[in-house]
Specification:
The chain is an alpha/beta fold and 196 residues long.
Length: 196
């Protein structure tokens, strides 16, 4: 893993504790995608980014074992809504003295370390940064410490979407549309696994 670079203390949090209800009984994060479990794509991107610390929050012991070598901390908790996973990540990041919090979703296989580094660089003391394809603004997203209280107060499965949707274009990193794919069901897994 790269060592921390200059700049604010930045903690990456891999959000990997969701219920995966649309995927069926199996844990989608363990489903094979291009030769490795789905969660490995996001966790490898986070491990290669220039972050100060890396945390994973998961509800699966199998996922925890996969990502443990790539993280400073792995927190295993009961399956929770997205907001609960974020709250756990914020609490851990605060313990590590975070000035920036980078949230990475475990089911987004096309996010790269370069994208994550660009997000961290775009985040300011006053406003978060997120990815966009020009139409949507979505995580991964990087938040300054001034947003930590609001993130800790989130409830339900919406995560930080409302805050991100209000961001101006200048706060977003433009990426190709496929980079924003998240795998929600077996059909999407099979389609994107075959895509070139």
């Amino acid at each position: 893993m790269p060592g921390p670079g200059p700049g604010p203390v930045t903690v990456g949090v891999l959000l990997a504790a969701g219920r995966s209800e649309r995927f069926g009984a199996a844990d989608k994060l363990l489903a094979p995608f291009r030769g490795v479990p789905l969660v490995c794509h996001a966790s490898n991107a986070m491990a290669s980014a220039g972050l100060t610390h890396r945390i994973a929050v998961t509800s699966s012991g199998d996922v925890a074992r996969l990502v443990d070598p790539l993280c400073d901390r792995v927190i295993t908790q009961a399956s929770a809504a997205m907001s609960g996973t974020i709250r756990t990540g914020v609490a851990q990041a605060r313990e590590l003295g975070a000035e920036r919090l980078l949230l990475v979703l475990g089911d987004m296989p096309f996010v790269t370390a370069a994208m994550l580094d660009r997000l961290v660089a775009r985040c300011t003391d006053d406003a978060p940064a997120a990815l966009t394809d020009g139409a949507r603004i979505v995580p991964p997203a990087c938040f300054p410490s001034g947003d930590f209280d609001a993130l800790s107060a989130l409830d339900g499965d919406r995560g930080a979407r409302d805050r991100l949707c209000r961001l101006p274009p200048s706060a977003c990193v433009r990426v190709p549309g496929p980079a924003l794919v998240d795998i929600d069901d077996e059909t999407a897994l099979a389609r994107w696994d075959r895509a070139g």
